[in-house]
UniProtKB/TrEMBL annotation:
Protein name as catalogued: Protein SERAC1
Claim: Aminoacyl-tRNA synthetase is one of the keywords in the record: no
Location within or outside the cell: Endoplasmic reticulum; Mitochondrion membrane
Keywords: Endoplasmic reticulum, Lipid biosynthesis, Lipid metabolism, Membrane, Mitochondrion, Phospholipid biosynthesis, Phospholipid metabolism, Transmembrane, Transmembrane helix
Species for this entry: Papio anubis
Membrane topology of this protein: Single-pass membrane protein
Cited InterPro entries: AB_hydrolase_fold (IPR029058), ARM-like (IPR011989), ARM-type_fold (IPR016024), SERAC1 (IPR052374)
GO cellular component terms given for this protein: endoplasmic reticulum; mitochondrial membrane
Family assignment from sequence similarity: Belongs to the SERAC1 family.
SUPFAM superfamilies according to UniProt: alpha/beta-Hydrolases, ARM repeat
Any single GO BP term: phospholipid biosynthetic process
Gene expressing this chain: SERAC1
Length: 611
């Protein structure tokens, strides 16, 4: 559209003084330009939306970088205009946020985040004029107003006769299919196969049964769209762990497509979490940061960070931390979640506490408060101090604010029959190397460390420390390990490998379960090697063990880790009258389990926390 417009340029140097500018003010001294315009004529008829103008009180601003101009030019004839003092503050903060000095930039972002008295248009002004670093900093500032964040740009329309499911399938099919490990190949082929069958059914084609992903199909009706999309998303999660594949996802419109899915499945947290895992993996690649910001993901994650759901907030925190290169040097790979601090903080972080779950556990659910009928009924009305879905994030973070608290997640299974990837045979040795690499990338070893583990997670901790002791580049992990807490860790094996919920578990126990058997050579070697290694180390150890049996399914009552198996041979061994699942889930904040754990952390890190 061509416009014939009359423009009046009005300028004034921004400052705290209200005195008129000197007559000798030159262009090089101007910090900002305020542009006002009056449209006199239009060559074509147009419809204008005046709501924005009304809402912004007829004000429209553009923030411009200062540039050096010819000293000889004389621009005195340009007029000036006065602005209110509170307007100056906004522009000064914007200028400050673009400073070459990092400390000045960080101060500006903090001052912006603490502004709670501005008019709506002032927040929008910052949203439109700030640079990506400032936007990410605001998203990672706890007190930031959500008005700092513009709505994501409009998404491109779907192709004719297409659907989000079909476009997701096309995105997956466009990713490289060579030089992949067996599990990525499996997830990819499964997702493409099942989505093809779903699309055929939707278009009236014949249904082909027999795929691994179709046990839920009860009729010749179509496969639930969210289920098929989950197959594709899980495959793309695996692909997004490869940097070159992230480039393909971005180039093929993946950021916009994933955003469309995120909105469509706002009531399906599992779908949203997989999408956030992909974005978090892509954010590990700094050359993709500008694309992620432009597509509007920072605004979406800023809102997710304020969610009451700990899992959603933690996934968002991982994405924003990977984007924030101003204050974060570490990179958080898939499965590594910072529970505290999730926002930027002035609190010095003096030590790390790491939580490693066990067989069939997870980064969040393993560490929840012990479930009870009363808690289930009352928890919507209770404060987190009385009931929490993740006690390290709520209780421990408040009691020890100088800690960085990390929880890790990895896939485990009781039986190969139900393995998510049939080709996957991950031993404790394989998983320990994988986790050690991820944790080192997250900066683990740069500060004093306390490891907290449940069940098989304790075996992983032992193996990680042994592996780290053999690698010079991992020596910091060993030197900074101050203590380890083992919650019912089967150092000498578990009865779990000898029983099963049903016959298929008995016939096809997973490699993880096999390695837990009492006669496992790998387990005995691990125990002997760790005891030898620990002789020369100066870390503290605390062991807890269950005394009550655990119901596995509805048929078997099993003492998963007996007292003799939980005895490492180092440190105190404390029996607790709970079952295997609840040994790491305190009933309440003043319960012995939590208070003894807190005492151990404080005593073990006493010197480090004082410094």
């Amino acid at each position: 559209m061509s416009l014939a417009a009359y423009c009046v340029i009005c300028c004034r140097r921004v400052g705290t003084s209200t005195s008129p500018p000197k007559s000798g003010t030159r262009w090089r001294d101007i910090s900002s330009l305020f542009l006002t315009y009056e449209v006199l004529a239009l060559k074509k008829a147009v419809t204008l939306d005046t709501q924005v103008v009304e809402r912004e009180k007829m004000k429209s601003y553009i923030y411009v970088h200062t540039v050096s101009l010819d000293k000889g030019e004389n621009h005195d004839p340009f007029s000036t205009v006065d602005i209110e003092d509170h307007e100056c503050a906004v522009w000064l903060l914007l200028r400050k946020s673009k400073s070459d000095d990092k400390t000045t930039r960080l101060e500006a972002v903090q001052e912006m985040s603490e502004a709670h008295h501005w008019h709506d248009y002032q927040y929008r002004l910052i949203a439109q004029a700030c640079d990506p670093k400032t936007l990410i900093g605001l998203a990672r500032s706890k007190e930031s107003d959500l008005r700092f964040f513009l709505l994501p740009p409009p998404l491109p329309s779907l192709k004719e006769d297409s659907s989000t499911e079909e476009e997701l399938r096309q995105l997956l099919a466009s990713l490289p299919q060579t030089e992949l490990d067996e599990c990525i190949q499996y997830f990819t082929s499964l997702a493409l196969s099942e989505s093809s069958q779903s699309l055929a059914a939707q278009k009236g084609g014949l249904w082909c049964f027999g795929g691994n992903g179709l046990p839920y199909a009860e009729s010749f009706g179509e496969v639930p769209s969210a289920t098929v999309e989950m197959f594709c998303l899980e495959a793309i999660v695996k692909h997004s762990e490869i940097s070159t594949h992230c480039d393909k996802i971005e180039a093929n419109g993946g950021l916009q497509l994933l955003q469309r899915l995120y909105r469509l499945h706002k009531d399906c947290p599992k779908v949203q979490r997989n999408i956030m895992r992909i974005i978090g993996n892509m954010a590990l690649n700094e050359h993709l940061h500008s694309s992620i910001v432009r597509s509007g993901w920072v605004s979406i994650m800023a809102e997710a960070m304020k969610s009451d759901r700990i899992m959603e907030a933690s996934h968002a925190a991982r994405i924003l931390a990977n984007l924030d290169r101003e204050t974060v040097q570490e990179k958080y790979q898939d499965g590594v979640y910072v529970l505290h601090p999730q926002y930027r903080t002035s609190q010095p972080i003096k030590a790390d506490v790491l939580f490693i779950h066990g067989l069939m556990g997870a980064a969040f659910k393993t560490w929840r408060q012990q479930d009870s009928e009363q808690a289930v009924i009352e928890k919507p009305m209770e404060e987190e101090d009385r009931y929490t879905t993740c006690w390290p994030k709520t209780w421990l973070a408040k009691d020890c604010p100088a800690l960085r608290i990390i929880s890790v997640e990895y896939d485990t299974t009781l039986s190969d029959w139900r393995a998510r990837c049939p080709m996957e045979r991950k031993s404790i040795a394989f998983r320990s190397n994988e986790l050690l690499r991820k944790l080192r990338a997250a900066g683990v070893g740069d500060r004093p460390v306390v490891w907290i583990s449940h069940s098989m997670g304790g075996l992983l901790v032992k193996k990680m420390l042994l592996e780290a002791s053999k690698k010079p580049e991992m020596s910091a992990v060993i030197n900074n390990t101050r203590g380890i807490i083992f919650y019912s860790v089967p150092h000498h094996g578990s009865h779990l490998a000898e029983y099963s919920v049903n016959i298929r578990y008995l016939l096809f126990p997973s490699l993880e379960v096999k390695e837990l058997s009492k006669d496992s050579p790998a387990l005995k070697t691990l125990q002997d090697d760790f005891l030898e290694f620990a002789k020369d180390q100066n870390f503290q150890v605390l062991n807890f063990v269950e005394t009550l049996p655990t119901y596995i399914g509805s048929m078997i009552k099993l003492h998963v880790v007996p007292v003799e198996s939980a005895d490492l041979g180092i440190g105190d061994l404390i029996p607790v009258d709970v079952n295997h699942l609840n040994i790491c889930k305190p009933k309440k904040k003043d319960a012995f389990l939590y208070q003894r754990t807190l005492q151990f952390i404080r005593e073990t890190l006493a010197k480090d926390l004082e410094n």
